[in-house]
Amino acid sequence: MKKKEIINKLTEIFDLELSGVIRYTHYSLMIFGPNRLPLIDFFKGQATESLAHANMAGEHITGLGGHPPLNIKNIKETFKHDINKILEETLEHEKKAIKSYYELLKLINNDSVYLEEYARTMIGQEELHVLEVEKMLKSN
How many CB atoms lie within 10 A of CB 14? Predict the structure, then answer.
């Protein structure tokens, strides 16, 4: 098993998921307009889920002998807070997560059923998020 490379990828995922907590919390505070209430709930739910995903990644890091970092590198503020821009940024973030989980799956390369199932489960969840956000972005 490529343990060090897997830990590095899990560390990237840990950072990405923790940045999602901050990102989605911020978005929930910046929603205005008639769809405010359901979107606040959506983004708060996303923040909670990102925290759970970060915890899982951190558990895998420490389980493999690594050390989860205390830094978050991937947060940038665009200062564009209309709903479509927020959803576009959300879509970009979710696609980045999918890419990272696929990269993790490739690194595992059938060396661990447990880690492979974890990566596949996360890919499925993130792909579902992308589908939902894409539906939210469609206009009739």
Answer: 24
**pLDDT above 60 for 140:** no
Report DSSP letters for 50-81, one per residue. Answer: HHHHHHHHHHHHHHTT----S-----------
Over residues 48-69, the mean pLDDT reads 96
Q: Residue 78 pLDDT > 90, yes or no?
A: no
Judge: domain 3-137, CATH 2.60.40.10.
no
- Tell me the DSSP string of 104-130: HHHHHTTS-HHHHHHHHHHHHHHHHHH
* Residue 44 · residue 28 · CB < 8 Å: yes
Written as six digits, the tokens of 113 are 């059923």
Q: For the residues 116-136, what does the mean pLDDT come to?
A: 96
CA distances from 27 to 2, 32, 54, 96, 98 (A): 37, 10, 19, 18, 20
The amino acid occupying position 140 is: N
State the DSSP string of 17-35. Answer: HHHHHHHHHHHHHH--STT
